[in-house]
Specification:
single chain; Yope Regulator, Chain: A; alpha+beta; Endonuclease, Chain A; 37% helix; 2 domains
């Protein structure tokens, strides 16, 4: 191992990400990329060149999602949440860094940190074994496996999961194949009776529909197993929607398999905040003029 002085740690982490080609594991309890464009750019490039990125963050009980959770999702990285996480380490197939530094802009600019660089295969393997033994077994979903297997209506589970995204979110069954969500907007989740494909849509205004092309392209890039589209006419109140490219085993949400229920929870909890952010950004742009 080689000691890395405080002023070089951020650069070493960026270099490690830049040089990765196969795998990249990042363990940082706290994350904030505000005003740290270089870090976001390197992570985006890693995803685009096909690197398998695993990102571990701390999950604080009785609190919402960590800062920059959705920033990582937009980069194509789904963070793994670990209660009580305090370790910080970063490694690829080529090198590793064990450090006191979180991926925080404030740590990069102000804190006096310590770092150790690992370069030989044995040391990198030890980091891999640490993650496998001490982190992966403790990764938590927002809705636990026990809750998902309990037979509780999926609309109730969605309400629990969306509570991390939007305080006061409400979900209810319109019918066995239709769930409606109120979370800063109205959303509909429907399994089509003819095709068994899942439809997920959120209402937008006529003004927003004229400005949604870039957002739809972004959704199609983020979710390759789904087709994003404007469900309606531009200039009219309509919806931005996703439709699954796969079919589901039942049109009854509560009769879906465990993995299908998990996929419904995942896509809804990803899509809802993205659409809310899109609407908020347009509103902010409108009032800033």
């Amino acid at each position: 191992m080689k000691l890395v002085p405080p002023f070089q740690i951020a650069g070493e982490i960026l270099g490690l990400i830049h040089a990765s080609n196969k795998v990249l594991v990042l363990v940082s309890p706290y994350v904030n990329f505000k005003n740290w464009g270089a870090m976001k750019n390197e992570l985006r490039k890693a995803v685009e060149r096909g690197v398998r990125v695993e990102f571990f963050m701390r999950k604080n009980r009785h609190e919402g999602l960590p800062a920059d959770y959705w920033t990582l999702k937009e980069l194509g990285i789904t963070p793994k949440l670990v209660p009580n996480l305090h370790a910080k380490l970063y490694y690829s197939e080529n090198a590793g860094i064990v450090t006191s530094m979180n991926l925080l802009t404030s740590s990069n600019l102000n804190a006096i940190e310590l770092g150790l660089r690992c370069e030989n295969r044995e040391e990198i393997q030890q980091l891999h074994e640490y993650v496998k033994k001490y982190l992966l077994p403790h990764v938590e979903n927002l809705v636990s496996d026990q809750e998902l297997r309990s037979g509780e209506p999926i609309s109730d589970l969605l309400e629990t999961q969306l509570g991390f995204v939007w305080q006061g979110a409400r979900c209810w069954n319109v019918s066995r194949n239709h769930i409606r969500i109120r979370a800063g907007n109205i959303f509909d989740v429907i399994i089509d009776k003819n095709t068994n494909r899942l439809y997920l849509g959120g209402i937008i205004s006529g003004w927003e529909s004229k400005r949604c092309d870039g957002f739809i392209r972004k959704l199609n890039k983020m979710f390759p197993q789904w087709e994003a589209f404007l469900d309606g006419e531009k200039g009219c109140a309509s919806s931005i929607a996703l439709e699954s490219k796969i079919t589901y085993s039942s049109i009854d949400f509560d009769q879906l398999s465990y993995s299908e229920k998990r996929s419904v929870l995942a896509i809804v909890s990803d899509f809802v905040p993205l659409l809310l952010d899109f609407k908020a950004s347009l509103e902010s742009e409108h009032y800033s003029k």
